[in-house]
Amino acid sequence: MADFYQHARLPTLHQLAVTEPHRQDAELIRWTDQNPIVLLLPALYAEFQRPALPIILEQISLIPWIAEVVLSANGMQEEEHAHALKICRAKLRGKPLHLLWNDGPAMVQVHQELERSGSGVYEAGKGSNIWSGLAYLQARGHKGIVISHDTDIMGYTADLPRKLAYPLAHPQMPYRFAKGYYSRVAGRLYGRVTRLLIFPLLRALSEVLGEKPLLQHLESYRYPLSGEFAADMELLSQLRLPSGWGLEVAMLCECQRLLPIQHQCQVDMGFHYEHRHRPITPRTTGDIQEAGLVVAAEEVACCLFDHVFREAEEKAASSLIRVVVERYRACCLEWLDRYEHVALINGLEFDREDEMATVSHFEAALGRLVEAGDDFGERLARHRSPPACALSDGPVAREALLQAVTVI
After folding, report:
1. How far apart are CA 92 and CA 69, in angstroms?
2. Average of pLDDT values for 2-22?
3. What does pTM read for this prediction?
4. Are the CB atoms for 146 and 230 separated by under 8 Å?
5. Residue-by-residue DSSP string for 323-347
6. In the predicted model, what is the mean pLDDT of residues 14-38?
7. What DSSP character marks residue 47?
8. Which are the contacts of 49, defined by CB distance < 8 A and separation ≥ 6?
């Protein structure tokens, strides 16, 4: 994305030249000597059965300024936990690893203790994996930078974490939160939940509610649902996060609430990264179950509504959401024309019928939220307390958490 356009609100750090990785590595080593960088990876055990994660771990083993890896995983049985450890030992080649088995016996006890102390109920999901990793780092007293990215990235190189870390570590930059953005292209346009749900839904919300600061903030991000971010631990320890797919939206909303805009930025990660493309509807392949993008879309939309309507009276919020959902489809049709034109100028495949079917699936998911008459107080209760608060209220859980992690 070689341009230098700056959004009026959010600082955007573009890739405009070829950098010198060895020089930047040396700078990162020097700058983070007193504030070490930890890489936090959320994963299902299924990722250990696919090719991307082992390759990612091999690449990480070669990055000198990453002090350690915290791998926060779920979906494992005991023998699978042993297999995951074996892969980590082989691929990380001595790089320190801290493995959290979130649905293992020791972590189940930790989650139960945290629930007793009022920190929220554990539900399996990417958000829970990130939350548990942050809670563990908080319990250990980590004070430095945390980087996180998805574990299904093909063609992974050290450039990705380097671009995330650099704005936070550089002594002349004021940033405390960096969000990665890139294109999702592989012969056709992907990023379907972002393109066909979030962008038109944000537009529909703005048309119905007006240009609210939170909506302006979210619209300033080029890829609000990317899984790539970096932040300092002080900020991350204060974030209230959901268990599932609403993680990325919640993180941006929390940053808007807690952090001045001059301390946030988005970073151009390059042309594109190839991620695993999920099916629209749930499916099972062998022993691996995939929830499908419709499930993710419903959770993302619910999280967005939670934050946008947090201060609204429940009945008024439900009425407004109904109007927003009605406006959503019209906004989608406007965006679809744009995407088709992007595909045409780039010689990409564009199946309008398939795109419309995806929109219909997302529209149905939004309709289910409307018809359910969601209790927004109950939905918000699904957000877990910030890690710092949870451990302050649950000192027993803190000690149990430190004991529950496997270190290699």
Report:
1. 9
2. 84
3. 0.93
4. yes
5. HHHHHHHHHHHHHHHHHHHHHHHHT
6. 92
7. G
8. 288
User: What is the tens place of the pLDDT at every residue in 125-142?
Assistant: 999 999 999 999 999 999
Parallel/antiparallel/unpaired status of strands 66-74 and 37-44: parallel
For 199, phi and psi rounded to 5 degrees? -60, -50
| Count of CB atoms situated within 10 Å of the CB of 33 | 9
pLDDT value at position 4?
79
From the centroid of its chain, how far is CA 332? 23
Write out the two tokens for 392: 């302050």
Number of residues that this document lists for the chain: 408
Judged by DSSP in three states, 117 sits in: coil
Handedness of CA 255, 44, 269, 55 (dihedral sign): positive
Average pLDDT on 377-383 reads 58
Across the chain, mean pLDDT equals 90
Q: 236, 127 in Cβ contact below 8 A? A: no
**Which pairs from 377-382 meet CB under 8 Å and 24+ separation?**
377/314, 379/302, 379/306, 380/306, 380/310, 381/120, 382/120, 382/121, 382/123, 382/242, 382/243
CA of 265: how far to CAs of 9, 13, 53, 168, 255, in Å? 10, 7, 27, 10, 11
> Please, which pLDDT band fits residue 270 given cuts at 50, 70 and 90?
confident
Greater confidence (178 vs 372) lies with 178
